[in-house]
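Exercise 7 asks you to align residues with C-alpha cells for two separate proteins.
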Amino acid sequence: MSNRNAALDRARTFITLLVLVNHSVVAYTAFGRFYPNHYLWSSAPVVDSQRWIGFNILTLFNDAFFMCLMFLLSGLFVAGSLRRKGVADFLRDRALRLGLPFLAMLLVLMPIAYYASFRLSSSNLGFLDFYAANLKQGVWFDGPGWFIWYLLFLDLLAIPLFYLAPGLIDAINRLSQKSFERPALFAGVLGIVSVAAYVPMLFEVGAVRWFNWGPLQVQLSRTLLYGVFFFAGMGIGAANIDQGLLARSGALARRWYLWSIAAAVAFGALIELVNFRRMKLANLTGAPPFWWQSSYGVVYALACTLICLAVLALFVRFGQREKSIFDPVRDDAYGIYVVHYIPVLWLQYALLDVTALGAVSKALIVFAATLAVSWAATRALRAIPGAKRVL
C-alpha cells in the first residue's frame, strides 16, 4: 500500500471512529428528548438524564461534515474500480460489500439495537412480538445503515455517469489537478455547488425531515449534498490523484494550518447561528425567518466544505508516516461500522440507572466498550471463509 493510500485509509478509519464517538455521546447531549409514546420521534434512541452541554458542540461539529467526508472518501476509487473491473464485476462487488451488510442490518442487527429504545416506550412487547408488529406495520430500522444503501444508490448512478458523461468526471479531475498549487479553486467550486445543492432543499423540506420509502431512509435535505461530495471524490480519484488536490506535496497539505483556521471560523459562524435560533427564535411558530434559514443553509454548506478539506489536509500532511494509531483498526473499520449500533444502544440503556456516573464518564464507557465489542465481533465474522469479501 502506498503512503498516499495509507493516509486516505487512515482518514476513512478516523471518520468511522468519529461515527462511534457521535453515537456514544448523543444520549448525553443537553438537548436530548425522549418521547415514551412515540419513541422513534426522540432526539436519540436512548436519552439519559445525565447531560453535558459540551456534547452539543461535539455532535454539531460531527454533523457539520463527517458523513459528507465519508461519501467523498467512498467516491475516490469508484472510477478506477469501474475502469478495472467493468460493470458486471463492479455491481457484484457492490452487492457483496454494500447490499448484503445493509440487508443484515435491516433484518437482524437494527431491530436488536432498537429494541433497547422500544423498552423505554409505553409498550411492553417481547422482542419477537416487537419484530413481528413492526414487520406487519411496515416499520423499518435503518440506523447507520442509511449510509450504506445510499452509497449503493450513488454507486449505481456513477455507472451511467462514468460511461455516458465522462466529460463531467474529467472536468472535476482537471479542477483537482489545477488545485495542486491553488486548492482554493476546488474549495470555491465545491462550496458554491454545495450551497446550490443544500439551500433549496432546506427551504423545500426543512433541515430534519427524513425521506422514507419502505426500508430506505435518508435525511432529505442532504440527499443532493451527499451526492455532490461523492461525485467530487469520484472526480478527484479518476486519475493522477497524487498530482492533484490530495497530493502529499500539494498546497492543501502544505498549508493545512490555513485550512484548519478557515474551518474553525466557518464552524464558529455555524455555532453562532444555531445558538441564535435556540436563544432568540425558539418561541417562534412555523419555519425560521428567511434571513436565518438562508444564512444557516449557506454557512452549513460552506462549513461542511471547509471542514472536509481541513481534515483531508491534515491526513495528507501528517498521515504518511510508517505507522499510525489508526492502522490496527483499518481492516476492520467497515465491520465495526456495520455492527456497532447494538452495543451502543444497549450499553446506554444499561447505564441509565447508574446515577453515580456523570455524562462524560458514561459516554467514555459506552465508546470504549462499543469499540471493543464491535472490533471483536468483526474479527470473528471476518474469520469466516469468504467473509472478508463482504466486511
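Second protein for Exercise 7:
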Amino acid sequence: MKRTGVARKSRVQKSEEIREALFQAAAEVVGECGYAEASISRITQRADLAQGTFYNYFTSRQEIFDELLPVLGAKMMAHIRQQANGAVGYREKEERSFRAFFSFLKRMPYFLRILNEAEFFAPVAHRQHFHNISSGYTRFMKKARAAGEITAVSDEEIEALVYMLIAARGYLALRYMKPDGSVELPEEAVTAYMRLLSHGLVSPQGGDVPVDPSQEREPR
C-alpha cells in the first residue's frame, strides 16, 4: 500500500473546518451588513459552501447568531491571554490585556458591530458573552486581590469594577473607531487608563474623605 505523505483529514476535522468557515463567513457578513441583512445565502456564499450545507450544522439563521458572539469572544480572550502571557504583576497584565483588546479589533474589525447589534438581534449570545467575559475578568481581579496587588475591595465592588473596566474598553473603541470600522487607540488613551487604575482621580489635596450630607451647611 503506497503512502502519499499527506494525511487524509478525518470526518470530524472536515466538519470542524466547515463549521469554522460558517462562523467566519457569518462574522464577516454581519460585520458588513448587520444581522438583519445577514441571510443564510449570503453566509454560505461567503463561505463558498452550498446553501444546504448550512442546515447540516444549524437549524436556522438565529441559531448561528446565538452562537456567533460567544465564539468570537472566546477567540478574543485567547488572544488577550496570549498577549498577556509572561507579564508580571497586576499592572503589567492589565496594560497588556488592555492593549490586546484593541489589537484584536485590528484583526477582527467587524467584532464591534456584532457585539453592539447582538443586544437586539441575538440577546442570548449577548448575555452569554458578557457572562464569559466578566467571569474571567472577575477571577483575574480576585487573584490580584489575594496577592495584595490591588486594594482589598469586596467581591461586590470587584463585580462593579469589572463592568466599569469592560465599559471603558467598549466606549474607547467607539470613540476611536474610523469610518472603515478599524480602531487606532492613541497612546494617550493607554496612559490615561493606566493612570486611573494606578492612582485614581482624586488628588490628596482634593480630599478623599467622604462627607456626611447631614453635616453640610447651607451657604449663607
